[in-house]
Write a structure and sequence with these properties.
alpha+beta, four-stranded antiparallel sheet, 15 helices, globular, disordered N terminus
């Protein structure tokens, strides 16, 4: 789980720009080529948001410690700004080649793990059932000596005593790593490792995109925002952050162009002229512009599920709003031939749509009250 958090913490600042990494002076090969590229970027943003959102729906909610709080949301742009500025200074004074080697190693390892996870639902149906029958377990423990339990008060039942003893045994084991996998996972890992080697050796845009999409899916499936209020706060602050770093300085654009790691999805602008494989000029979209609105859209799908009706109203409306926001970004960028902070358009589109929808339907109270973790607590109360 942690790898997605670090990924999300490191990556949005790096490239929250929809932009073209070719020289502004180059003549566009063809308008058609541009629009094919923009259409492809749009699809590569929508796929992980759609799949990641449905993977984020869990029957028993999220653990409290995994859920983002208001404080986390408030600090996120601060950490992101520090990371961004740090990278900018490193690129300027150390030179991009060393940093890119380090970052490529880091993101290739994470990419292989994220891709292994993303491939499983595709690979499993193709494998014979016997491959998923016998899991392997990887368990690292560091046994601990615990103090003896206090003499229990008289009103504790035998069942509670047994449970406390069970919990003590688990704590005494001191589990550091508890990981299970089967042959299907091994097959997925081998495929992901091949993609990793391809990326590492060629830095090809297609290999980059495999990792970028896998990262985005993992991030959206695994990072719970907690509530509509936390999500809106996060997107509002990132709106300011994005606009400042893109329009106020050259920091964001410089880092985005120098940074050679799979933290963006790419598509060639000259695909008609050069074909898919030997292209150099690409349009790009930073993963931050996919993951950050994506975790918000996933939250709305989970809210839809708790409304008890079979509709995905809030999810669908906000998903469409995201499409409109991203298309707007692309149109503005293409018209003015300048990099655009995508969250300038995506943040208002994604936060205002469900808010106004709930207001119009008289469901604002439910939307504001919804909480990823409260859902889990409610279920516990019901079962007791």
């Amino acid at each position: 789980h942690t790898h997605t958090h670090t990924m999300a913490d490191v990556e949005p600042p790096l490239q929250d720009v929809v932009g073209d990494n070719a020289d502004a002076a180059t003549v566009p090969d063809s308008e058609v080529g541009f629009f094919i590229a923009y259409g492809a970027l749009l699809l590569m943003a929508l796929l992980p948001i759609f799949v990641g959102s449905f993977r984020s729906v869990r029957p028993n909610g999220f653990k409290k410690e995994d859920i983002m709080t208001k404080k986390d949301a408030a600090m996120f742009p601060v950490f992101a700004s520090c990371a961004l500025l740090g990278l900018y200074l490193l690129f300027k004074y150390v030179g991009p080649e060393y940093i890119n080697i380090l970052m490529s190693v880091y993101f290739s390892v994470l990419g292989v793990l994220a891709l292994t996870q993303a491939l499983r639902p595709l690979v499993e149906p193709l494998c014979p059932a016997v491959l998923s029958r016998e899991p392997f377990f990887l368990l690292f423990t560091q046994p601990r000596k615990l103090p003896e339990p206090d003499a229990a008060a008289g009103d504790v039942t035998e069942e509670q005593k047994a449970q406390a003893e069970e919990e003590r045994k688990v704590a005494a084991k001191g589990v550091l790593v508890d990981f299970s996998f089967d042959y299907v996972d091994v097959v997925c890992f081998v495929l992901a490792a091949v993609a990793g080697a391809w990326y590492w050796l060629t830095k090809h845009w297609l290999a980059n995109n495999l990792f970028g999409i896998a990262f985005s899916m993992s991030g959206i499936a695994l990072i719970p925002l907690g509530s509509f209020v936390v999500g809106s706060l996060l997107l509002a602050l990132l709106f300011v952050y994005d606009v400042f770093w893109v329009f106020g300085t050259d920091v964001m654009v410089t880092v985005a162009k120098s940074f050679d790691a799979p933290i963006k999805v790419l598509f060639p602008k000259d695909v008609l002229a050069t074909g898919l494989l030997n292209t150099t000029k690409c349009s790009m979209l930073g993963l931050g512009d996919i993951v950050l609105p994506g975790i918000f859209i996933a939250l709305l799908l989970r809210f839809d599920k708790t409304r008890g009706k079979d509709s995905h109203l809030y999810f669908t409306a906000t998903f469409i709003a995201y499409v409109v926001g991203l298309v707007t970004t692309i149109v503005v960028m293409h018209t003015f031939k300048a990099a655009q902070p995508a969250l300038l358009y995506l943040s208002p589109a994604c936060t205002l749509t469900p808010f106004l929808l709930a207001l119009g339907r008289g469901e604002l109270k439910e939307l504001l009250a919804y909480n990823d973790e409260a859902e889990e607590e409610n279920k516990e109360k019901k079962t007791e």
